[in-house]
Design brief:
The protein has 305 residues and is α/β, with parallel strands linked by helices. 56% of the residues lie in helices and 13% in strands.
C-alpha cells in the first residue's frame, strides 16, 4: 500500500468517524455508543460480503472511542456555530424570538432564537444563544443580555425587522420593558413587535372557560383510567373508529371523539343562542368551533416547522 492510498483511507475513516459522531449527537446517545455502531458494521459486512477484506480493514480503522467521539462532536459544534454566525452576518433581514424561563437550579435564563433570510432568499431558523440572567429579570436585564448576544454574534442590528416575545410585562413594557428600551435605543431600527401566537392561544383558552364540558371530559377520563379493563375496552373502541388520525393522549382523545360526533351540547346551546355572549358580554362568533379547529391545525403546523 503506497502513501497516497494510505492517506486516502485515513481521510475516509475520519469522515466515517465524523458521521457516526454526528448521528450520536443528533440522537443524544452516549458517546460510548460508537463502539456499538462499529460492532454492528462488522456484523453486517460479515453477512453481506464476508470476503471483502478492504471494507473490513476500513471499518477496523474507524476511531469511535469515547474521547474521539467527544472531540468530533466539539469540532462539528464549532463548525455549525460558525456557519450560523456567517449566515446571520451576511443575511438580508432577520427577526428574533425571545423567551425567559427558569432552569432546574432556579436560575433565570433567556433563550434567543433567530430567523434570517439569506442572499439566496432561503429562510433559516436556529437557536442563537441561551443566556443566564442575574438575580432579577427586569427589562434592563433582558436588554443587556440581548445586547451581549448580538454583539457576540456580530449581528447586523440595522437589519432587524421584528421581535417576538411571550407578552410578559418585563418584555413588552413601553418604558422600562424590553420593547420600550429597544425602541428608545438608537442602535436598533424600527421593528415590528410580535406577541407569540402560542402564548396568545393559551391566553385565549383561559378566556374561553367551559367548566361544564371539561368536568364531563375529566369524569370520562377518570372512569376509563380507573381500572385496566375499562382502559383496554376504550382502546379497542378507538381502534374501531374511522378517524383520520387517532390521538394517543387519552384526554385529547375524548375531546376529539366528542367533537367528531358533535357531542358538545353545552357549547352548541351557547353558540346557537340568539345573543350568545361570554365573559364581560363579548359576543361569540357563530363559527367559533370551525375557527378554533383551524387555529389548532395552524399551530400544529407551526410547531412541526
Amino acid at each position: 500500500m503506497n502513501i497516497s492510498s494510505s492517506s486516502k483511507e485515513s481521510n475516509i475513516t475520519t469522515e466515517a468517524s465524523s458521521f457516526i459522531a454526528w448521528n450520536i449527537a443528533k440522537s443524544k446517545h452516549p458517546y460510548t455508543d460508537g463502539e456499538f455502531v462499529k460492532q454492528n458494521l462488522f456484523d453486517m459486512i460479515s453477512v453481506l460480503d464476508s470476503n471483502n477484506s478492504k471494507i473490513q480493514r476500513l471499518i477496523s480503522n474507524i476511531s469511535v472511542s469515547r474521547h474521539t467521539t467527544e472531540r468530533r462532536i466539539s469540532e462539528i459544534s464549532v463548525e455549525v456555530k460558525q456557519h450560523l454566525l456567517n449566515g446571520l452576518k451576511n443575511c438580508e433581514t432577520f427577526s428574533l424570538a425571545l423567551d425567559e424561563s427558569t432552569g432546574i437550579q432556579d436560575k433565570p435564563q433567556k433563550s434567543v432564537f433567530v430567523r434570517y433570510v439569506t442572499s439566496d432568499v432561503l429562510v433559516k431558523e436556529e437557536l442563537l444563544d441561551l443566556v443566564e440572567l442575574k438575580d432579577t429579570t427586569r427589562g434592563i436585564d433582558l436588554k443587556e443580555a440581548l445586547d451581549t448576544v448580538l454583539v457576540k454574534a456580530n449581528a447586523p442590528k440595522n437589519k432587524l425587522v421584528s421581535v417576538a416575545t411571550d407578552g410578559a410585562t418585563a418584555m413588552v413594557g413601553k418604558h422600562i420593558g424590553l420593547m420600550g428600551l429597544l425602541n428608545s435605543d438608537p442602535m436598533y431600527p424600527e421593528f415590528i413587535p410580535v406577541h407569540c401566537v402560542i402564548h396568545r392561544e393559551y391566553l385565549a383558552a383561559k378566556h374561553f372557560n367551559f367548566p361544564i364540558v371539561f368536568k364531563s371530559v375529566l369524569e370520562i377520563v377518570n372512569y376509563i383510567r380507573s381500572n385496566a379493563k375499562n382502559h383496554r375496552q376504550f382502546k379497542n373502541f378507538i381502534s374501531e373508529l374511522d378517524l383520520a388520525d387517532k390521538p394517543s393522549d387519552l384526554f385529547f382523545t375524548v375531546l376529539k371523539i366528542l367533537k367528531t360526533f358533535n357531542h358538545f351540547p353545552q357549547i352548541k346551546e351557547i353558540i346557537h343562542n340568539p345573543n350568545p355572549t361570554i365573559h364581560d358580554g363579548c359576543p361569540i362568533p357563530e363559527n367559533i368551533l370551525e375557527e378554533l379547529s383551524q387555529l389548532e391545525i395552524e399551530l400544529l403546523d407551526l410547531q412541526k416547522d
